[in-house]
């Protein structure tokens, strides 16, 4: 790749490298028991004397599926840290509390990151755990590759491992783009979609809201300090301990971002996030909750009840003329016990405001 830093790789070459790697991964996944490489990345691809691309470094390989619900999380996290590379980790690896089994589908995610890097010489999510969890990435506007290639990347980088394709499905489409028959077997009789996710935009993943880049984000919180702690700790891994509810200002690392959080309980329960990417952090948190509480099964253990019983408005007082953005999304959640509804509204038109509006819920104040 170093030889092509200026010119980049042609689509033909990208697909050639990628399909060679797919065949290697298929050999691993079809072994008995299946082998998970766990450290698929560009650095572990070599070229042999015949000009073929081969996969190397099997020191991280494993045949054991990991169920976070049946394992000690600290040990699982330590193993992931030791044997995998952050920028290639799948969502189920960075969010163990999701309880999703870590197995062959984590290799598929890494293949998506690898394909992205072959195309654009960078990884799609950097080292942002939050971006990995949400599956948020962008296709460069100056991309030289076909819409079909973009769609293949999006198809592979599916955050839900249950929906994410298997190695046959990925290989089949990749070889199809090469106009070659696929040599990878299909023992699971997996179906290949006739149409991949549409590449509607080269700058944003479909269905994800654009996020304004402000230096800070302020939240007016209707709720107690304890509820706030629970809300935040569901999504953030804080370095250090919380201060008392009497008020605190603390720096911490969140998903490899340096963030400062300030809690003002006597000033209308205001919570302020400061940091280069803190605005995106807060918006992404609200996006996560908006999606989570709209699931059919209601509130899962990983979703804090304060997302329902509190109203949140995020504002940026430093912006006099907010960027005009057209993204708008409303989702409803209906409680199964008493049929109370909650609407989640993302409105980026006015000051990049995000609101969670609660209706007919006892003890809730609307903003």
Order of helices and strands: HEEHHHHHHEHEEEHHEEEE
Helix content: 25-40%
Unreliable residue stretches: 201-223, 235-257, 265-282, 284-367
In CATH, the architecture of the largest domain is Orthogonal Bundle
Average pLDDT taken over every residue:
68
Structure summary, number of beta strands: 10
For the biggest β-sheet, the strand order reads: 4-5-6-3-7-10-9-8
Intertermini distance: 53 Å
CATH topology of the largest domain: Transferase(Phosphotransferase), domain 1
Instruction: Output the structural class.
Output: alpha+beta
**How large is the radius of gyration?**
22 Å
List the domain count as a whole number. 2
What can be said about the biggest beta sheet?
8 strands, antiparallel
Overall geometry: globular
Q: How many distinct helices?
A: 10
Task: Identify the CATH class of the largest domain.
Answer: Mainly Alpha
Strand content bin: 15-25%
Annotated CATH homologous superfamily of the largest domain: Transferase(Phosphotransferase) domain 1
Brief descriptors of the model:
367 residues, 8-stranded antiparallel sheet, two-stranded antiparallel sheet, 10 helices
């Amino acid at each position: 790749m170093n030889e092509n830093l200026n010119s980049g790789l042609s689509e033909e070459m990208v697909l050639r490298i990628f399909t060679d790697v797919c065949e290697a991964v298929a050999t691993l996944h079809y072994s008995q028991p299946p082998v998970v490489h766990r450290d698929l990345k560009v650095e572990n691809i070599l070229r042999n004397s015949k000009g073929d691309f081969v996969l190397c470094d099997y020191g991280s390989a494993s045949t054991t599926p990991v169920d976070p619900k049946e394992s000690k999380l600290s040990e699982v996290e330590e193993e992931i840290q030791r044997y995998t590379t952050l920028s290639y980790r799948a969502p189920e690896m960075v969010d163990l509390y999701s309880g999703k089994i870590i197995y062959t589908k984590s290799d598929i995610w890494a293949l998506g990151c690898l394909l992205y890097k072959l195309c654009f010489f960078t990884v799609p999510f950097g080292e942002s755990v939050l971006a990995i969890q949400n599956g948020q990435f962008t296709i460069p506007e100056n991309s030289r590759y076909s819409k079909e290639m973009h769609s293949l990347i999006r198809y592979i980088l599916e955050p839900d491992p249950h929906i994410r394709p298997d190695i046959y499905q990925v290989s089949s489409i990749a070889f199809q783009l090469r106009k070659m028959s696929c040599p990878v077997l299909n023992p699971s009789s997996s179906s290949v979609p006739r149409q991949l996710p549409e590449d509607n935009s080269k700058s944003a993943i479909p269905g994800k809201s654009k996020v304004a880049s402000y230096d800070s984000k302020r939240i007016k919180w209707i709720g107690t300090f304890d509820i706030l702690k629970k809300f935040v700790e569901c999504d953030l891994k804080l370095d250090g301990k919380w201060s008392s509810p009497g008020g605190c200002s603390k720096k911490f690392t969140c998903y490899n971002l340096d963030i400062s959080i300030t809690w003002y309980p006597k000033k209308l329960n205001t919570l302020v996030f400061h940091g280069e990417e803190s605005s995106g952090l807060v918006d992404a948190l609200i996006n996560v909750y908006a999606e989570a509480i709209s699931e059919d099964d209601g509130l899962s253990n990983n979703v804090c009840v304060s997302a329902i019983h509190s109203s949140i408005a995020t504002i940026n007082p430093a912006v006099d003329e907010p960027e005009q953005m057209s993204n708008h999304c409303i989702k409803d959640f209906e409680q199964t016990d008493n049929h109370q509804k909650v609407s989640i509204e993302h409105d980026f038109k006015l000051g990049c405001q995000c609101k969670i509006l609660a209706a007919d819920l006892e003890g809730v104040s609307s903003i």
